[in-house]
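Collaborator request, handled under Task 6.
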Amino acid sequence: MTTAFATIVRFCTICRGEMAFEQPDCVDDHAGDCPEWVCVECGDAVLVGFVLPARAPRATRRVA
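Structure tokens returned to the collaborator:
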């Protein structure tokens, strides 16, 4: 069983309305900065406030 320690209100795409989302215990060791939030009604999960890693630039090919 997980214990939620934070709650926010966001739009849930499954419930189609403003719903409470809880932040469950983080199993990925984000040290209190876990981006996962779960809708208390349907269980849909969203990621909030995370930054995608920078992508390496694509190599360009020249055609002669």
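The cover message to the collaborator said: "The two ends are 62 Å apart (CA to CA). Strands lie at 7-12, 17-22, 36-39, 45-47. Please let us know whether this matches your experimental observations."
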